[in-house]
Amino acid sequence: MSAQPSIHPAQVIAGKVHAAHLTDTTRAGVARFVETHGFPPGLAVIQVGENPASTIYVRNKVRKTEAVGMRSVAHHLPASISQAALLDIIARLNADPSVHGILVQLPLPAHISRDAVLDAIAPEKDVDGFHVANAGKLAVGRRDGLIPCTPMGCLILLKSVRKNLAGLHAVVIGASNIVGRPMASLLLAEGCTVVVTHLKTRNVAEETRRADIVVVAAGHAGLVRGDWIRPGALVIDVGISRIETPQGTRIAGDVAFDEVAPHAGAITPVPGGVGPMTIACLLHNTLRAAQSAQAGKQKGSPP
Ligand SMILES: Nc1nc2c(c(=O)[nH]1)N[C@@H](CN(C=O)c1ccc(C(=O)N[C@@H](CCC(=O)O)C(=O)O)cc1)CN2
Ligand SMILES: [Mg+2]
């Protein structure tokens, strides 16, 4: 009998199921919070302009925030709003004790500085984890900051298939502040050897072929091909692109799923993989921010 190549279909990681579990845990935590303090955690969501994808994500965030028993405050602002007026709204939310989390949906219109807006959010209310203070804490290995939701979701999914990631070789494709860089910091904190590839990397496939873990956040549909992946590797696909096909629009990830799945040990699908974890982690961060705010008050209150 001739030897057959050892091809085992990958475990498909059900992000939706993991997101539902995390959301259940948050819902229970919110109930305990309300019982203890007599009011719910509050999340303010700011959307600027009419980006259709943002409208869907914001609507989902509001719905899911309320579904776990938290209070949601939505601000939908015109695309023409000035940066100063937006900063003013953020300042008011920073000062509002009933608001524990604040997020500004990205992308922002071109006339507004993303960094100026994100850094205006009080770091302890920055439930996206994008403020430079939270990014800095993560980068230096501190655990007391708020962690960006998508990379946190990726890590939870990775650990659902392999508890101990120490010593593994991880390759992150994409160096954005929202996914790639914080993902690299989280993997480093888990004990991985981490390579971050980006637009200027000469041969990305050469890097991924060595990897036990590949996290792809490139925004380039189907970038990662079957022969980029070493047998048994864990593959996390953060990409979401809308592709026009003769059958209509379809959502595609950055990984050519049908080619990669036969080689991978485990792989996330798109849709239904990382995406649902992003909002579940946002709710988790909001509860955590509310708990920290209350603990801070108790510490600071007179005996
Ligand atoms: N302030 C922020 N802005 C943006 C973030 C963010 O975390 N904070 N991330 C993305 C958008 N995003 C949440 O805001 C987000 C993207 C995708 C999903 C999701 O569940 N995707 C589904 C597919 C849904 C579809 O498009 O049809 C999936 O992958 O299964 C949730 C949240 C950019 N902006
Ligand atoms: Mg396999």
TrEMBL record:
Domain Tetrahydrofolate dehydrogenase/cyclohydrolase NAD(P)-binding stretches: 148-292
InterPro entries documented for this protein: Aminoacid_DH-like_N_sf, NAD(P)-bd_dom_sf, THF_DH/CycHdrlase, THF_DH/CycHdrlase_cat_dom, THF_DH/CycHdrlase_CS, THF_DH/CycHdrlase_NAD-bd_dom
CDD domains: NAD_bind_m-THF_DH_Cyclohyd (cd01080)
Domain Tetrahydrofolate dehydrogenase/cyclohydrolase catalytic: 13-128
Transmembrane segments: none
One Pfam family from the record: THF_DHG_CYH
Pathway connected to this protein: One-carbon metabolism; tetrahydrofolate interconversion
Catalyses which reaction(s): (6R)-5,10-methenyltetrahydrofolate + H2O = (6R)-10-formyltetrahydrofolate + H(+); (6R)-5,10-methylene-5,6,7,8-tetrahydrofolate + NADP(+) = (6R)-5,10-methenyltetrahydrofolate + NADPH
One Gene Ontology cellular component annotation held by this UniProt entry: cytosol
A single BP term in Gene Ontology: methionine biosynthetic process
EC numbers: 1.5.1.5, 3.5.4.9
Single annotated GO MF: methylenetetrahydrofolate dehydrogenase (NADP+) activity
Database matches in PROSITE patterns: THF_DHG_CYH_2 (PS00767)
Keywords from the UniProt entry: Amino-acid biosynthesis, Histidine biosynthesis, Hydrolase, Methionine biosynthesis, Multifunctional enzyme, NADP, One-carbon metabolism, Oxidoreductase, Purine biosynthesis
Chain sites annotated for binding NADP(+): G174, A175, S176, I240
UniProt-listed HAMAP family: THF_DHG_CYH
PANTHER family in the cross-refs: C-1-TETRAHYDROFOLATE SYNTHASE, CYTOPLASMIC (PTHR48099:SF5), C-1-TETRAHYDROFOLATE SYNTHASE, CYTOPLASMIC-RELATED (PTHR48099)
Family: Belongs to the tetrahydrofolate dehydrogenase/cyclohydrolase family.
Subunit relationships: Homodimer.
Protein's job: Catalyzes the oxidation of 5,10-methylenetetrahydrofolate to 5,10-methenyltetrahydrofolate and then the hydrolysis of 5,10-methenyltetrahydrofolate to 10-formyltetrahydrofolate.
Identification of the protein by name: Bifunctional protein FolD
The species this protein was found in: Komagataeibacter saccharivorans
Gene: folD_2
